[in-house]
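User: Hi! I have a protein structure encoded as tokens and I'd like to know what sequence might fold into it. I'm fairly new to this, so please keep things simple.
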């Protein structure tokens, strides 16, 4: 396997408390490796440490402890070289709202030491449907267009590693689609992408690997498909024709229980590899043998969002 493009080791960040408030530990012994060319989704609730982690890699936040290496270089020694190869789409617009779109994006390219290239800037602006707005002041744009400008500024210097911090939060469906089309193109070009998002279905669709962070700690990092297989569950509910007071021994299975005053039989089990569906079919056959009638089965498979919620809430069945 190729060397990782980014290696984070034992990273800590503690913010001093204000007044009498105690210090706040935003990052706690974070260890993470990012593979070159992958799309990595970092999921976590508000305040989990996602933005602090991104800020540390991009040189915007000074860590309390630990090391960050990118492109084989140590961030403490080679900050400028590393930062020139990283793009960042932050959550908030910076203070250049009185500049025109074209000037802002062109300046951003030069800021990271890239030579002037009007054709490349035009290509970026056109890819984000901003070319017609190139002479408009950023402050005059809609919220969605401002978000496009942030993305254009991050892409202007052709980064090898791109951070997207909630890139589609609060934007319209059209921009969201444009954004994911752009990500597909960047993946094809070999750009490594790390994104945070509240739209977990986007991570489920786009990411190669997923990490979950909460309270400054990485709870889990895994290939998306492996995570779904290992932590996924099948849930099924049999709506019974007549209520049961107990589950017959011949029907009883691990993960099977009565609900709704005995009017429903609920199953939760499997591991995301198809065994859950097999168990549901086995339960149906057992009910038929016992002559227990039901008039509906409602079955669903876990989504990445289900797994995320389980991890964050630290439910015993996920930790097991």
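Assistant: Happy to help. Inverse folding works backwards from shape to sequence: for each of the 320 positions I chose a residue that suits the local structure. Here it is:
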């Amino acid at each position: 396997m190729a060397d990782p493009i980014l290696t984070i080791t034992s990273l800590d960040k503690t913010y001093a408390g204000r007044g009498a408030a105690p210090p706040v530990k935003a990052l706690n012994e974070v260890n993470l490796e990012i593979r070159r060319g992958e799309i990595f989704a970092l999921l976590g609730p508000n305040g989990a440490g996602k933005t602090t982690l991104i800020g540390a890699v991009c040189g915007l936040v000074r860590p309390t402890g630990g090391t960050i290496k990118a492109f084989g270089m140590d961030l403490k020694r080679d900050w400028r070289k590393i930062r020139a190869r990283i793009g960042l789409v932050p959550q908030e617009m910076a203070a250049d709202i009185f500049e025109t779109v074209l000037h802002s994006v062109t300046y951003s390219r030069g800021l990271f030491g890239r030579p002037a290239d009007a054709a490349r800037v035009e290509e970026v602006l056109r890819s984000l449907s901003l070319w017609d707005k190139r002479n408009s002041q950023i402050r005059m744009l809609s919220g969605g267009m401002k978000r496009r400008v942030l993305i254009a500024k991050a892409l202007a210097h052709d980064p090898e590693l791109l951070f997207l911090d909630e890139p589609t939060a609060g934007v319209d469906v059209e921009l969201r689609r444009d954004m994911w089309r752009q990500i597909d193109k960047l993946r094809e070009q070999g750009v490594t992408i790390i994104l945070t998002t509240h739209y977990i279905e986007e991570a489920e669709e786009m990411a190669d690997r997923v990490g979950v962070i909460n309270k400054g700690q990485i709870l889990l990092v895994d290939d998306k498909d492996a995570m779904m297989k290992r932590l996924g569950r099948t849930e099924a509910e049999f709506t019974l024709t007549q209520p049961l007071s107990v589950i017959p021994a011949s029907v009883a299975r691990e993960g099977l229980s009565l609900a709704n005053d005995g009017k429903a039989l609920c199953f939760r089990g499997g591991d995301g590899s198809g065994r859950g569906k097999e168990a549901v079919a086995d339960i149906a056959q057992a009910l038929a043998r016992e002559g227990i009638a039901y008039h509906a089965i409602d079955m669903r498979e876990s989504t990445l969002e289900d797994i995320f919620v389980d991890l964050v809430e630290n439910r015993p069945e996920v930790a097991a």
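A useful reference point when you look it over: The chain has two domains: 6-228, 233-301. Feel free to ask if any position seems puzzling.
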